[in-house]
Specification:
Elements (H helix, E strand, L loop, with lengths): L1 H11 L7 H23 L2 H24 L2 H43 L11 E7 L7 E4 L5 E3 L4 E3 L1 E4 L5 E12 L4 E9 L2 E9 L8 E5 L5 E10 L19 H20 L4
Helix pairs in contact: 1-4, 2-4, 2-5, 3-4
Length: about 270
């Protein structure tokens, strides 16, 4: 995933200087062009064009047969229409397969670059470290990285992490840090019980480090520090487009689909692609 993101940074990294909504529109256009362009070169356009014309003609014939009460004719036309539809469905497989790699690259890059609002230099960034309930009350600290300051200090007590219902779900330590020199790339060494848990933090206004990193021991057992989170606000297109977290769809994907679906349909007649 890191390789894909780095690769796509060479292609689309310049766009990070644009507003997020412009980046989203660019991704939608690129996706629509890929879907329609690949279709043009991987399908028999003449065959699909004739199939489309045949289906339109069959629709007229079926309407006339229904009006005449000719059930046998309607049955024949429906069967023929189904055969033509099968030809179309078969033709969809190759363009779909050919589109997977470029679409996957675009999606991977977008997940790592526009899913959240990147932190700005000088603004506070909240860091959260999660622990088991048994660790509540203990002290944990971050080794102070050069160029960062912590508003409430680098040593914190592990408090209660409560769920939406008010029940204690685990332990939580929180820091508010700020870049003193305008930003940069940092590593946060969280020290607890003789162990060090490192978390990357990027503050430049254009990119962000992976928001959540989980830790486990060699055998798959959870580590003393279970996860560290950079608390970043999710990007919501135009500030209003919601996500559907229950099915794993963040707001940017909803905004992306709102743009790419009509664009894909619009480009087909414009480029005369069946």
């Amino acid at each position: 995933m890191n390789f894909c993101v780095t690769l796509m940074d060479y292609v689309l990294g310049w766009s990070l200087h644009l507003p997020h909504v412009a980046i989203l529109a660019l991704l939608a256009v690129c996706t629509a062009v890929v879907l329609t362009g690949v279709r043009k070169f991987t399908t028999n356009q003449d065959l699909l064009g004739r199939a489309k014309a045949d289906k339109a003609r069959l629709k007229v014939l079926m309407r006339a047969a229904k009006q005449a009460g000719d059930k046998e004719a309607v049955k024949r036309y429906r069967a023929t229409n189904g055969e033509i539809g099968a030809v179309g469905m078969k033709a969809e497989l190759l363009p779909l397969a050919a589109s997977l790699i470029p679409i996957a690259l675009l999606a991977t890059w977008a997940f790592s670059r526009i899913g959240y609002e990147p932190p700005l230099g000088g603004e506070p960034v909240t860091i959260k470290a999660y622990f088991a309930t048994s660790e509540i009350g203990n002290l944990v600290h971050i080794v102070p990285p050069a160029g960062l300051e912590a508003k409430s200090g680098w040593i914190q007590k592990i408090g209660e992490d409560k769920d939406a219902g008010g029940k204690v779900a685990g332990g939580l330590a929180t820091w508010q840090v700020r870049a003193t020199g305008g930003g940069g790339s940092f590593v946060l060494p969280v020290r607890y019980k003789g162990e060090t848990f490192e978390k990357a933090l990027l503050i430049d206004g254009y990119k962000y480090a992976e928001p959540v990193q989980a830790y486990e021991k060699a055998g798959g057992e959870k580590a003393a520090c279970e996860a560290i989170q950079i608390d970043l606000p999710e990007y919501k297109p135009l500030g209003i487009v919601p996500g559907f977290s229950k099915i794993g769809l963040p707001p940017w994907i909803i905004g992306y689909l709102i743009l790419v679906i009509p664009l894909s349909f619009l480009l087909k007649p414009v480029l005369r692609i069946h």
